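A note from the maintainers: we've had questions about how concatenated examples are separated. There is no special marker in the raw files; a new sequence line simply starts the next protein. For clarity in this README we add a label.
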Amino acid sequence: MADTTQPRAPRGMHDILPEDTALWRHIRDTAERVGCLFGYRQLQTPLVEDASVFLRTVGDESDIVAKEMYVFEDRGGDRLALRPEGTAAACRAYLEHGMGSRPQPVRLYYFGPMFRYDRPQAGRYRQLWQFGVECIGDASPAADVEVIELQRTLYEQLGLGDLTLRINSIGTAATRHRYVELLREHFRPHAATLSRDSQRRFETNVLRILDSKEDAAHPAVLAAPSILDHLEPADAQHFAEVRALLDALGVAYKVDPRIVRGLDYYARTVWEFEPRGAGGQSTVGAGGRYDGLIELLGGPHTPGTGFATGIERIVLNLRDRGAAGTEPPVDVYTAPLGEAGHVATLRLARELRAAGIAVRLGAPGRGLRAHFRAAESAAARYIAIVGDDEAARGVVQLKPLATEGEQQEVGVGAAIEAVRGRSSRGITPDA
């Protein structure tokens, strides 16, 4: 028997409806413009990568691999994964295309969907969109600050300038190894009182207990030793220079030793932007330095730093502030009356569009009153009425809707001039 259940989008994945696209387009265009202002160039990687790209870099015990990554075998027997994040894919492209031979650092940005099998909730989806940047080939604190400043500029230009920047240093691998052992000894007497997820992390990745949402208020978490007290001198100097540069730029921030990363390749500077007074679950975007990632992919030691920001999180925060995108303008709505009028409006629309004017075609067979209602609903600036008589004479009845003005009979050329706003004394019919 046929399945009569109405199909729905997969759980944790959602449609972006026409009424939503204006805001999404605004975010995308702003992100790409800010990226270009900082000298970053767009990179597009496949939605599907060899699973080893992520298995090598994010660690077998990370949440991404252990619980979230979509992995499958294709018909050729290759083990593939839907990309869960953009950094490893960007670094794979950097290596594959020999970008190490280009002037360093290589500055890249990307915008697209990622996939994680996560528990769906507000701002967290199984198909999630991200904008991210990667600055590969520069080990200096200045590179960290450049990327932070780019991210801050993006939020400011989107109207989210009140987000709080929290920064930390997690040192190098050697620093973390010693700190992890210290943490393990600290949490060992309290392990039985931690959440089940934190108990698992105690065995696999004890550092991640510090950013547990369930145990954020646990006394053992609050009393945990700070990694900042255990940095190597070079790590501490790097972090001091990052803070000094941020201070010089007047960028406000808070030092938060509990910011960590579950991904193995991060080192030294890490940061997050979140709404004021919100918890880590509301993080809008996060970044950090990943000096060991290229090596994990089989390349030479190559420093890198970058960030990713969730587009859905940005949308939620903008809507909380009452923001809405602006729909693309409709310059002209065509109102065909009669069979010849319909053909003439098709030709008129072609001419107008060739001149860069947005046109919405009215459906044939409607009355004039219905056409006016449709034109007003579309917020069109003009309505162009073409009946069989106008079609025979090669003219248009053009009436402004967005401003005061009389309906006038004009030729196609004059209609283009009027809609573009080039006529200073009204509309003059073509000779």
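[label: protein 2]
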Amino acid sequence: MSFEVIVVGEGIAGLATARDCARAGLRTGTVEQMMFGGLVTSINELIDWPAGEGGPCSGSDLAASWITEAADAGVESLGGCATGLDASAGGLLLRTDAGTHEARCVVIATGASRRPLGIPGEADYVDRGLSHCADCDGPLVKGADVVVVGGGDSALQEAAVLAHYARTVHVVHRGTTFRARPSVHAAFEQAFAGRGEALRIHWQSTLASIEGTDGIDAVTVAGPSGTSRLPVRAVYPCVGLVPNSGWTGLATAADGAIETDARLAASLPGTYAVGAVRAGYGGRLVDAVADAVLAARSVKESLQC
């Protein structure tokens, strides 16, 4: 099946790009191996995103709205997991585990995966106390002590959610100041306002180990004064993202993010990259939307040449 453009990834950047391409009259398809929406679907209340009349907007609500808009615009959801990309006589061949698709342009919007902590035995605790979604399982740690690792937007957002459930939230951060945006930092401080005893920040520290039999019982934190053991029930790693670009074969920066020019074009003619998978991405939802607008315009212009 041949398309004018295929968008790989149905996160916010991918859905917005596909929708805008279809609205421009281009035959558009999407490929997504998981659920639509991407990482944003784990956030119950989006910060710095305009809410509708019904109040704060959740990530899942936003994603559901946008996949509906994409479908209404005529986007065809192809499914499958993208495995490779090659030039062809007609443009590009996108290989997936469900088949091969031909397109004149391909937009990579595969986002990024959460970076692991890199400590021994970490994988053994996934879904057994090690979590990436405080909004999902916060009630499960009600009255318990928990650890959040990191100092950026995600870490402070997770800690703010956990403030409503946990007895004590330990934030382990290797730096001396938080990197989170002012709006996120303000929400974090508000969550613990009047409950200073519920928050403990471990500056210049890292998580050295996790222990437990049926789940997490304790962690070891390494800091300037040595190591300390903290009895906790859950760990929330928020130490950055790894771009999902390995399958593309495109030129990338040292961190694996796809390199693009000012039009978001990648190294293979006819390919573009948007959102967290590309180098230089701003990291906010508004940046994802800006990428989508520019990519859709660039695709349309290239096809009119």
